[in-house]
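User: What would this chain look like folded?
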Amino acid sequence: MAKFLLPIIIIGAFVLAIVTLGPDRLFTPGAVQKIRKNRITNLKDKISKLEKKYKKKIENADKLSKAYEKLGSAYLKNKNWTPAIDSIKKAIAYGNNSAQTQHVLAVAFANRGKALNKKDDLKNAEKHYNLAIEKNEKYLDAYYGLSILQFYHLKKQRSSIKNLK
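Assistant: Here's the prediction, encoded as structure tokens.
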């Protein structure tokens, strides 16, 4: 019996060490563990520096997106459809992807499509009205614009009436 007791104790201690420390820590040399820990620390430092560096750029992107949205709205009021579309697309590219921005883009596409008789613009208008509604289900102007577009220009009367309701 004594012959079996020592191997059982050794195996038990080994299993206990694996469970307590984990196989990675138990079998990975200390130098490798230190290198891995240093790599994580270095990556955290790099990320921290990058966040500080790009924080101003992110803030500027937010300012640019708002400025482009205002520019697009100004073009829209002056009935300059193409520059309005370009400006609003830039606002979205800089991160301003709100329901209102989608609505303004839809209005610009709808007006240009109607003025130039372009079916692609009318379909884009429908898409952006739907995106505005998706972002804010209570955006009544988007429902109204979509209904008008569908009823008069896309000949989708049933969808139009459904959206009005």
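The CA atoms of residues 40 and 46 lie 10 Å apart. If you want, I can go into more detail on any region.
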